[in-house]
Specification:
Layout: H1 2-27, H2 31-103, H3 126-129, H4 140-165, H5 172-196, E1 201-202, E2 210-211, H6 212-225
Antiparallel strand pairs: 1-2
Length: 232
């Protein structure tokens, strides 16, 4: 609004400058006075317009710079999201195998009395975490989904470490609870892809590539709805 008023004022000054000779003549002013007055009006209008153009140019340059920085940051984050997704693909597979083993009544998993998730831990996002204030170029919803995802992964890792160290035993009940938690993370990861890299596609095993968000939601749904075989 203020910018529009300034532009209108500048053009009003130009209009008054154009009418100044006629106004001065009717007021009985001397030609030198009329000329000086007209020149002052034109100069003021030109200065005002010049300042406005400089501000508009600076604003456009800043918007272009912000857009480029935003695109670069989102590309970096998308790469880390893909890395995180790969770890969840492995984790989802391990949990389902464990559930199938438990469902068959096999007490020992992989020849041991506890389930080791050391190789399937959700991978961290150090580059995204290190961006700090640079993340402010993202929208509120983008920042929200990223922070929520990373917070949930920070909660999931200690739980997996408890199973890996043998502090907690993996049975049908705890495996079901864990699958729900991991599926929740995968749905958050899908949301992150939708906000940051909606067109990003990923391959899962020997299946055709598909949208990362679609793939993650499908696997999360399968994980929560998978039923363990009945005990023999």
């Amino acid at each position: 609004m203020w910018l529009a008023l300034q532009i209108a004022l500048a053009f009003l000054l130009f209009a008054v400058a154009g009418a100044a000779p006629w106004i001065g003549k009717n007021l009985g002013l001397d030609p030198p006075v009329i000329g000086a007055f007209t020149g002052a009006l034109v100069g003021a209008a030109a200065t005002m317009l010049g300042g406005l153009l400089a501000r508009l140019t600076a604003r456009a340059d800043k918007a272009s710079s912000d857009a480029e920085r935003r695109a670069t940051i989102k590309t970096l984050i998308a790469a880390e999201l893909a890395n995180v997704a790969a770890s969840y693909f492995q984790l989802e597979r391990t949990i389902r195998v464990a559930q199938e083993t438990l469902g068959r009544g096999e007490i020992a998993l992989r020849g041991q009395d506890f389930q080791d998730f050391s190789n399937e831990m959700p991978r961290s996002m150090p580059l995204t975490s290190g961006l700090g204030p640079e993340l402010l170029v993202l929208s509120t919803s983008e920042i929200d989904v990223l922070s929520t995802l990373m917070l949930n992964m920070d909660l999931t890792r200690p739980r997996l470490e408890e199973f890996s160290s043998g502090k907690r035993s993996l049975n049908l009940l705890t495996a079901g609870s864990l699958s729900q938690e991991v599926a929740h993370d995968m749905n958050l990861l899908a949301q992150a892809f939708e906000r940051i890299a909606p067109s990003r596609r990923l391959a899962f095993r020997d299946q055709p590539v598909e949208l990362a968000s679609v793939l993650l939601r499908r696997l999360a749904n399968e994980l929560t709805k998978s039923e363990c075989p009945a005990r023999r």
